[in-house]
Structure formats: structure tokens, C-alpha cells
Specification:
The chain is an alpha+beta fold and 183 residues long. Helices cover 30% and strands 28% of the residues. Strands 1, 2, 3, 4, 5, 6, 7, 8 and 9 form a nine-stranded antiparallel β-sheet that branches. The mean pLDDT is 96.
Length: 183
């Protein structure tokens, strides 16, 4: 029988997408105020791999990623997804946009071996966590590169996303080797 042991801390990330630069700026401010400083920021990529979100978010969507400095317990993913959902509703309620969902925030985490994303939608490959939140391994790392699964969203197969996740993976590796000094 295996013995229960402490889980390794993970590098929390978030994906945010919107057609409005101000919405992405708002999401960055909101997430970093709650989850701590951002240590890595991706470019704002054109989100054109699918038109699934166009009816609720409009056209010309940009997507970006943030990695947060503080490593933490992966069990916190549930709270982060619930917070992200509440922030999306809060931003939509501010008005000023015609779309019903002007902002999407998707939290997840990264380890040396995988990128995990949270979802409110169940599917055959998703595992239930708690409080209506599921998770999936979206990418895994093998042979020195990120690999998709059958269910991996088309945009997560992009080499430019993988380059950003490589930076995250390197930061995570270094951070685990040399934790920040205690205050």
C-alpha cells in the first residue's frame, strides 16, 4: 500500500481572453490582488482557433496567460475557479459592452509534468474536484516538449503557447530549487 504524503506545490496560472484590452487589464488587476504578484506574462495572442465564443464574446478576441509568483497547494484550484467565475459576472455587470460575456478567466496550474485547467463542465476526461468544479490535464510534458491530449483545445496546441509554458516550467523548476527567503 502506498503511503499518503504531502503534495508538491504547483505554479498557478490563469488564461484570460476578451476583445477588450481594458477587460484583460481589469482581470490582471483582480487576479493579482487576490492571488499575488504575476511573475510571467504572455503576449496577447489572437484567439482564432475556434468561433465557439463569438456569440457571447464577439470577434477579435485576444488571449493571454499569467503565472503567479507564489507556489501553492493544487487543491486551491477550486477556490480560484469559483473566484474567476464571480469576477467574470462582476465585470459583465459593470456594463459598457454589448456582449453577455465580455471576459473569460480560466485558472489552472502547471507542474514539471503537466498543465491542468479547471472547468465547470463535466466530460469523460475530467475529474470532479469539489463545489461544481472539474479539472483536466490539458497538456503533458514528454520528450522535452508539451504534448496535447485528444481533448486538448485547439489553441493549446500552439507552439507560441508552449513557448510560454516552457518559461513557466523553467520558473517553476528554479523556484522549487530556491524558495523565496522568509520575511
Amino acid at each position: 500500500m502506498g503511503s499518503v504524503r504531502s503534495v508538491e506545490p504547483v505554479l498557478f496560472v490563469a488564461a484570460a481572453f476578451s476583445r477588450y484590452p481594458a477587460a484583460l487589464d481589469w482581470a490582471l488587476a483582480k487576479t493579482s490582488a487576490a492571488w499575488g504578484p504575476v511573475t510571467l506574462t504572455s503576449p496577447r495572442f489572437a484567439f482564432d482557433a475556434t468561433d465557439y465564443y463569438q456569440p457571447t464574446m464577439g470577434q477579435g478576441i485576444k488571449k493571454c496567460f499569467w503565472a503567479y509568483e507564489q507556489l501553492g497547494d493544487p487543491a486551491l484550484l477550486v477556490e480560484r475557479k469559483l473566484a474567476a467565475n464571480a469576477w467574470e459576472i462582476e465585470y459583465a455587470a459593470l456594463g459598457g459592452h454589448n456582449e453577455p460575456r465580455p471576459l473569460n478567466i480560466d485558472p489552472g496550474y502547471l507542474t514539471q509534468a503537466k498543465l491542468v485547467l479547471a472547468s465547470t463542465k463535466d466530460h469523460a476526461h475530467r475529474i470532479y474536484l469539489a463545489r461544481g468544479i472539474f479539472a483536466e490535464v490539458t497538456l503533458f510534458y514528454k520528450n522535452r516538449q508539451w504534448q496535447p491530449r485528444d481533448w486538448t483545445f485547439a489553441d493549446y496546441r500552439r507552439p507560441d503557447y508552449h513557448a510560454f509554458f516552457d518559461q513557466c516550467r523553467q520558473f517553476y523548476h528554479t523556484r522549487r530549487q530556491t524558495p523565496p527567503a522568509s520575511s
